[in-house]
Amino acid sequence: AQKITQTQPGMFVQEKEAVTLDCTYDTSDQSYGLFWYKQPSSGEMIFLIYQGSYDEQNATEGRYSLNFQKARKSANLVISASQLGDSAMYFCAMRDNFQGAQKLVFGQGTRLTINP
Amino acid sequence: DADVTQTPRNRITKTGKRIMLECSQTKGHDRMYWYRQDPGLGLRLIYYSFDVKDINKGEISDGYSVSRQAQAKFSLSLESAIPNQTALYFCATSDGSQRGNQPQHFGDGTRLSIL
User: Fold this and answer.
1) Given B48, B101, B105, which is nearest A52 (Cβ)?
2) Fewer CB within 10 A of the end CB, N or C, for chain A?
3) Is residue B112 within 8 Å of B63, Cβ to Cβ?
4) Predicted confidence band at B99 (pLDDT cuts at 50, 70, 90)?
5) Per-residue model confidence as pLDDT tens digits over B13-28
């Protein structure tokens, strides 16, 4: 089974600074993908970015980028020029082939607070 | 408009009541999922469906049932609600026709409280 570990329960960052949220994973699959989701206090779960295990380049989506280090099994999310609206829970996830369901397995999350 | 719409957004009800949570999507995805989120437990899969005629139990299906009325609609029912079903419920969709790892797209969630 897949396992995701996020070791930072909470992070506090000044507005406009860059922030890195850590994610390590464990899998025996050769082909896999990693996802990051944002959950604001209002509760919705927003897909941010995806990294495939065979992608040659690190994924980027606007201010979001992934620092993917396959040998270390880490997929850290980097948010550049943080904004107040970035305050939220952030979850790293990967797909687990549970009885063919391909459900998502999430880490425990990191609560990011952006200070003005 | 949201691509994945859940109704209601919030619901408070009493033990023993029957409750239906609805999910509709305009993304054209074939796969739909129901999860619940509890503090400290993450998201757990309740039911999933790959097609209108293909419905499967997830990790924690006891006490729940589902109906896939159309490709775009997937509803979750609590036949006789109990307090430990109090949670945040998410519907999610993904595109099974695409190769590779496709993300799941979530609705805004339904906060359900059972008194």
Assistant:
1) B101
2) C
3) no
4) low
5) 999 999 999 999 999 9
